[in-house]
Amino acid sequence: GKALTSDENSPVEIEWSYIGTTVSGEEVKTDPYKIQPASDGSYSIDINHEQDGEYTYTLTAAPDSELSTVISRVVVVDTTDPVVEFSTLTNDEIIESSEFTLKGNIEDANGIEKVEYQLMAGSTQILIDGTQGTGWKEIPKAKSSFNLTLSNLKENITYTIKIRATDVAGNVSEDEQYKCNFTIDLSNPVASIDEPKPEENSS
Predict the structure, then answer these.
(1) Closest CA to 113 of 138, 134, 149
(2) Distance between CA atoms of residues 18 and 53, nearest Å
(3) HEC readout, 160-197
(4) Among 22, 110, 152, 197, fewest CB within 10 Å belongs to which?
(5) How many other C-beta atoms can be found within 10 angstroms of the C-beta atom of residue 10?
(6) pLDDT by residue for the chain (203 residues), tens digit each?
(7) What is the largest CA-CA distance in the chain?
(8) Using an 8 Å Cβ cutoff, are 80 and 107 in contact?
(9) In 3D, which of 34, 33, 29 has the Cα closest to residue 19?
(10) Which of 118, 79, 121, 80 is closest to 102 using CA atoms?
């Protein structure tokens, strides 16, 4: 930024500090320290937070003057990807229906912007209704949880469902991190009795 006198002809000294709360609940702060801007009033401050959290930055121009100017900004630091959890499907599960609803939850400290899916039938990408599709598809109204009904599923195909979440800070879960394989079995089981033999009708 810049810190100049009111006529914008000379730089003025600034004092900077911050306080905050990390995502783990720890209170953190730095002692105020003074910075002398360049001759044109420009300055820069390198900030490195060890943990995500919410921080309040305070900048005071001409801190030793009765006419000092104080500016504060609240900044949320979020470098953590969302975490996806499947609640109605496990990897390599066998589904005994051509239609079922996939449900799950998304964990993120600051909120979810969107949730998307990819559904593969073998090597072919399809949509939730079984028709062909391409790319990631957004799940409507999905935020902290998602609900996705898959239909027209076929036997003898290995399906792979992938879920990807993007949080409000722009962090995106990895494309291959949250996925499940499943197959469809619509056939009744086969059973037989070897012993005892069925009785023959006598005439």
Answers:
(1) 138
(2) 12
(3) EEEEEEEECCCCECCCCCCEEEEEECCCCCCCCCCCCC
(4) 197
(5) 13
(6) 999 999 999 999 999 999 999 989 999 999 999 999 999 999 999 988 889 999 999 999 999 999 899 999 999 999 999 999 999 999 999 999 999 999 999 999 889 999 999 999 999 999 999 999 999 999 999 999 999 999 999 998 999 999 999 999 999 999 999 999 999 999 888 888 888 877 765 55
(7) 122
(8) no
(9) 29
(10) 118
In the three-class reduction of DSSP (H, G, I as helix; E, B as strand; rest coil), residue 29 is classed as strand
Structure token pair of residue 88:
């109605």
The C-alpha atoms of residue 17 and residue 150 are separated, in whole angstroms, by 53
What's 109's DSSP letter? Answer: S
Residue with tokens 């291959």: 176
| Distance between CA atoms of residues 181 and 104, nearest Å | 15
Q: How many residues does the chain have?
A: 203
* Cis check: omega of the bond before 198, within 30 degrees of 0: no
Token pair 């900004």 in the structure block, residue: 73
